[in-house]
Write a structure and sequence with these properties.
Structural class: alpha/beta
Number of helices: 17
CATH topology of the largest domain: UDP-N-acetylmuramoyl-L-alanine:D-glutamate ligase
Strand order of the largest sheet: 5-4-1-8-9-10-11-12-13
CATH superfamily of the largest domain: Ribokinase
Number of strands: 20
Shape: elongated
Helix content: 25-40%
CATH architecture of the largest domain: 3-Layer(aba) Sandwich
Largest sheet: 9 strands, mixed
Length: 473
């Protein structure tokens, strides 16, 4: 089955949602905080992706930023093909304050409005696109560039373009290019413009009108005006062609982002040639999915839950990083110094080192070495407690620190891991790779730093004694 390709250009940022407890007073209010990834273009792309569309996502983000790292991982998890420019610019963030299910205040920072994304740079990619989706967080120059590029790669039937309003202020950009050459040339291919009711009213006020049908005087296309729980109006050729109340939804957490969800369902169906009734039906279907979430898009999950994996984990093995391990051993050392109950200071340390690992890289290549490390990381994680700290210490070394575990138990764990690895055949391109491991173990009531040094000396003795063995102090 062919998947439509959506060239989606616009905003993606970290969403921070604050829900106020109703019984609190004053400026400093109590409530719940939710962290997720959002942005108008991202929210609509998420909806299109759920409907099995292929997303080519174009945006701009701040270079060397924690927010950017979180965002890019989420974009990749969502299955998007990314074309992200990273530059020195503000971070991408959106902060909203909610009371009940309604947003009462929002502040946003969108890096993409500070740059010009030249669509001509991506001409070969855009040739494959079936639909263009552009949000008004972009600079006017970016919007015009993608409108112009959409004309360069027309099939016998025109590729449709859909424009997403973002806020009252940014929707006014529609006035900036309504009489421009690019707008005149692309009027036939702009198939829909999506606004919420506040954006539509402000746009009409700016042109001196109170009639929604006058939206069609700005750009003669289909205008879809949404208003969260209050329904949808659709205008075309200066006529109201459809008004529908929002159906009731079960388990509504928030209507935030429901307009973007509606746009995603509408665009998907409209670009396939569906009639207005079917477009509305699929739009509301995705509103129902979005409303089940605390955040503003149709993809479930709270980004904060994945921060541990992003910040503290080694990308290859899935174990903790060296930096995180160093933080934890400092903490355990501090506990050992102040803890008067000696039994609570009991800890053990295991250091593993894969034997002759360089030979694997030299024989099979570094990709094979990576597979061996992944396999070994999973093996270690499966054999130790969740409360233990298992980290990639460096290269092919893995260290495990186990509070409350004696040296004898740690030795048993190390020997079990050694034996399982020796018996394993790690598959790589149809070739089983066999590898062994040496381990050094130390345990007791000493400072964990001292135990780490002792375990390292024991590992040296294991290597010196012939490898593939466990030695303890």
């Amino acid at each position: 089955m062919y998947r439509l390709r959506y060239a989606t250009v616009g905003s993606v940022h970290i969403d921070i949602m604050a829900d106020i407890y109703p019984d609190t007073q004053g400026v400093d209010r109590r409530g719940d905080i939710t962290l997720s990834v959002g942005g108008t273009a991202f929210n609509v792309a998420s909806a299109l992706s759920i409907l099995k569309g292929h997303i080519d996502f174009f945006s701009a983000l701040k270079t060397d930023s924690l927010f950017t790292r979180l965002i890019i991982i989420k974009l990749k998890e969502s299955g998007f093909t990314l074309y992200i420019q990273q530059k020195e610019m503000p971070d991408g963030g959106f902060v909203s304050l909610r009371e009940g299910k309604d947003m009462i205040l929002a502040v946003n920072s969108t890096p993409v409005e500070h740059v010009f994304i030249d669509a001509a740079m991506y001409g070969n990619i855009l040739k494959k696109s079936d639909v263009f989706v552009i949000d008004l967080n972009n600079s006017i120059e970016t919007v015009e560039s993608f409108l112009k590029e959409s004309l360069q790669h027309q099939k016998p039937e025109q590729k449709p373009v859909y424009i997403l309003g973002v806020s009252e202020e940014k929707a006014l950009k529609l006035l900036s290019f309504r009489d421009s050459e690019s707008a005149r040339n692309t009027r036939g291919i702009i198939k829909g413009i999506f606004l919420n009711r506040h954006e539509a009213r402000n746009l009409l006020k700016t042109i001196g009108s109170t009639e929604y049908t006058d939206l069609c005087n700005i750009i003669n296309t289909t205008w879809v005006v949404t208003a969260d729980k209050y329904g949808v109006m659709i205008f075309s050729n200066k006529k109201l062609i459809r008004y529908v109340d929002t159906p009731g939804f079960n388990k509504v957490m928030s209507f935030e982002g429901s307009g973007d969800a509606f746009a995603g369902g509408f665009i998907y169906t409209h670009s396939l040639g569906g009639d207005i009734e079917m477009c509305i039906q699929n739009g509301f279907r995705l509103v129902g999915e979005c409303a089940k979430n605390y955040h503003s898009n149709t993809i479930p999950g709270n980004t904060i839950e994945g921060v541990d994996n992003i910040l503290f984990r080694d990308a290859l093995t899935g174990l903790y990083s060296r930096a995180y391990f160093e933080e934890q051993i400092e903490y355990l050392s501090a506990v050992a110094k102040r803890e008067k109950d000696i039994e609570k200071r009991l800890v053990s340390v295991i250091i593993f080192d894969l034997d002759k690992f360089k030979n694997i890289n030299d024989t099979y290549g570094h990709a094979a070495g990576d597979e061996v490390l992944k396999f070994f990381g999973k093996l270690v994680a499966s054999c130790v407690r969740k409360s233990d700290i298992s980290a990639r210490y460096g290269g092919e070394e893995i260290v495990v620190i186990s509070p409350g575990i004696s040296k004898s138990i740690a030795c048993s764990v190390a020997k079990r891991i050694r034996k399982k690895l020796e018996e394993a055949a790690i598959p790589y391109n149809g070739t089983p790779i066999q590898v062994t491991v040496s381990a050094g173990v130390a345990g007791g009531y000493d400072d964990p730093r001292a135990l780490l040094e002792k375990a390292d000396k024991a590992l040296y003795e294991a290597k010196k004694g012939g490898r593939n063995r466990v030695v303890y102090v």
